[in-house]
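Dear support,

Our group has been running a series of protein-ligand predictions, and this particular one with flavin mononucleotide is the one our PI (initials K.S.) wants archived with full inputs and outputs. We had some confusion internally about which version of the output was final, so please treat the block below as the authoritative record. The input we submitted was:
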Amino acid sequence: MNKDVIIICESIYHGNTMKLARAFSSRLQCRLITADEALLVDLKAYQIVGLASGIYFTSHHPKIMAIIDQLNVNHQTFIVSTRGRPYLGNYHAAIKDALANKGVEIIGEFSTKGYDCTGPFNLIRGGNIGRPNEKDQLKAIKFINEILPEYIRDLTAVPNGRNVAITSQCVGCGSCQAICPMNVFAITNNRAEIINEHECIHCSLCQRGCPEQAILIRHSARELIAIAKHHSRRKSL
Ligand SMILES: Cc1cc2nc3c(=O)[nH]c(=O)nc-3n(C[C@H](O)[C@H](O)[C@H](O)COP(=O)(O)O)c2cc1C
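Confirmed final output from the archive:
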């Protein structure tokens, strides 16, 4: 588990921002908590704090803004949001001002469109349907790779010739075995073991479901094409 980075997210409307926050947390192998949970955490223990929420009436959620009180000049932060309108404009101005007042360094900011059916969007059955989508998530991952390359471990930590790996953080809880539709995992001696890697379809359910964030997956283009070929004639689970 990444001990330097923590992400705090309020995503009260459709869970749009939480989708991004989960992608970041999985990429960074770091803790992801709500603003209420953050009140119980000593944020001084972390060097980098990600602040994420939807945009509600032109700025971040008030609980995210309130967290800034707990930050200090030793912290660095990155700002994340999803919004209804097509362009970001000055929606990050309030949070940036508040961070500047506390002397907190901002190492990056990311915003994308999120599904929104407030007000006039109802005339068209909601705006930004399906957003953030896969493309947005890829952009988000690119952003995090760029601002925090030293914390991106998955590509380098998966041994050569393998696409899935289990780190020493595994406690053998069996979540991966229970959730994997392809029976890739077994639990042996209180640890997950990969017994069927050639069946893995990179759905990432194991990674998302692992409470210890102990599963690493390398999505190489070559492997993803091989998976499509391998399963092309399959007609059922
Ligand atoms: C109470 C409320 C106020 C909102 N205000 C704005 C706004 O000022 N500008 C905007 O672009 N979107 C606005 N939205 C749309 C949200 O920013 C958008 O749907 C966002 O993706 C929600 O994120 P969430 O699902 O993580 O809560 C608002 C939504 C709600 C519910």
